[in-house]
Amino acid sequence: AQSVTQLGSHVSVSEGALVLLRCNYSSSVPPYLFWYVQYPNQGLQLLLKYTTGATLVKGINGFEAEFKKSETSFHLTKPSAHMSDAAEYFCAVSRGGADGLTFGKGTHLIIQP
Amino acid sequence: ETGVTQTPRHLVMGMTNKKSLKCEQHLGHNAMYWYKQSAKKPLELMFVYNFKEQTENNSVPSRFSPECPNSSHLFLHLHTLQPEDSALYLCASSQEAGGLVGETQYFGPGTRLLVL
Fold this sequence. Notes:
Distance between the termini of chain B: 32 Å
Helix content of chain B: under 10%
Helix content of chain A: under 10%
Structural class of chain A: mainly beta
Radius of gyration of chain A: 13 Å
Largest sheet of chain B: 7 strands, mixed
Oligomer: heterodimer
Strand content of chain A: over 45%
Mean pLDDT of chain B: 90
Number of helices of chain A: 0
Low-confidence stretches of chain B: none
Mean pLDDT of chain A: 92
Distance between the termini of chain A: 41 Å
Largest sheet of chain A: 6 strands, mixed
Radius of gyration of chain B: 14 Å
Shape of chain A: globular
Low-confidence stretches of chain A: none
Strand content of chain B: over 45%
Largest interface: A-B, 28 and 31 residues
Number of helices of chain B: 0
């Protein structure tokens, strides 16, 4: 079985500050890991994903995440927050089969001016 | 149109009604998914179709009935729903489910369902 834990249902940062959204997973097989973003009244958009290879993954809009197997983590970061980053962020894990994605509960990112 | 589209975007129905949600993907994908997004709960996978065949039913009540007539279209037929079924229903597609690498799923905007 797989599970995803996102620490903090709400994270608030100032514009220009570092963004750090935490994600820990459990999986019985090597996982495939994803971060999705959801803006109000929209579906989910892929930010980045880890499958194999380099553990530091760069995504869209300046976001990146690092896969750390020893810590079972896949935290999302962005050096400098922008007002347009305000949204709901979801971490997800997949075994790559026909299981679909297992999502965390999401983290609402608030950007303070 | 491009990507994944869903209709209707909003739906209000009574517990005795029968309605259907429609999803269409214009990406040439072979796998399609239904997810349920409820307030304060993680997104829940409901159904997976791969090459028009249902490959997963994630313990979904029978009042939800999926249909996949071809790789581009996916329906979710609803009947005798309960108020707790009110949620955002998201459709997604990917190149193929069951591949050896993590397939990226592309999501539609969702149908916001309210059951009275």
